[in-house]
Design goal:
With 86 residues, the protein is of the alpha/beta class. The protein has one domain: 2-enoyl-CoA Hydratase, Chain A, domain 1, CATH 3.90.226.10. Helices cover 37% and strands 20% of the residues. It contains 4 helices and 6 strands. The strands form 2 sheets. A 3-stranded parallel beta sheet has the order 1-3-6. Strands 2-4-5 form a 3-stranded mixed beta sheet. It comes from Pandoraea cepalis. InterPro entries: ClpP/crotonase-like_dom_sf, Enoyl-CoA_hydra/iso. One of its GO terms (molecular function) is catalytic activity.
């Protein structure tokens, strides 16, 4: 089964989970991607931290999670998180 997703709103925390599960991710120029759970004193959801490294690489996934790095549409595209930004 294939699932595609068009992101128009910020995909943060549990909102990023469905995007990570999709085969194809497309976003608009104002999209934002983040896993801010640590800044809220929460543990990141296991599904997100397990899938993210396969999409953007282990080093970038660690940077995004541990340093609370928010990706804009261009950086998400540059890192391989989305296939198209537009």
């Amino acid at each position: 089964m294939s699932a595609d997703l068009l992101l128009k709103l910020p995909a943060e925390a549990s909102g990023l989970e469905p995007a990570l599960a999709c085969d194809l991710r497309v976003c608009n120029p104002g999209a934002v991607f983040a896993l801010p759970e640590l800044s809220l004193g929460l543990t990141p959801v296991a599904v997100g931290i397990r899938r993210l490294p396969t999409l953007i690489g282990l080093g970038r996934a660690k940077e995004m999670i541990l340093f609370q790095h928010r990706l804009d549409a261009f950086q998400a595209w540059n890192w391989g998180l989305v296939a198209h930004k537009g």
